Amino acid sequence: MVEDLTDLLEASGWRWREVARRVAHEIKNPLTPIQLAAQRLRKKWDERAPDLGEVVVDATAAIERR
């Protein structure tokens, strides 16, 4: 007895793609604010900005929350 499993395999593949998409989204979500904080730190560092200390505190707090 031979069964055509095409529909089952296609449905299963769709579910795994959806799971992978959601996992990627969950990983990327906290990385965006971390990237932005790092970019802000770099910019302030390059400018030798007088408020660098304050930005370091704010940016590292944002990173720690992620």
Please characterize this protein's 3D structure.
The protein is mainly α and 66 residues long. Helices cover 85% and strands 0% of the residues. It is built from two helices and no strands. It is rod-shaped, with a radius of gyration of 22 Å. The mean pLDDT is 87.
Shape: rod-shaped
Count of separate DSSP helical elements: 2
Structural class, please? mainly alpha
List the helices and strands in order: HH
- Arithmetic mean of pLDDT: 87
Q: How many distinct beta strands?
A: 0
Q: What is the share of helical residues?
A: over 70%
Radius of gyration: 22 Å
Q: Measure the end-to-end span.
A: 54 Å
In percent terms, what proportion of residues is strand?
under 5%
Biggest sheet overview: none
Low-confidence stretches: none
Summarize the structure.
The chain has 66 residues and is an all-alpha fold. It is built from two helices and no strands.
Write a concise keyword list for the protein shown above:
mainly alpha; 85% helix; 66 residues
Layout of strands and helices, then pairs:
Elements: H1 6-47, H2 52-65
Helix pairs in contact: 1-2
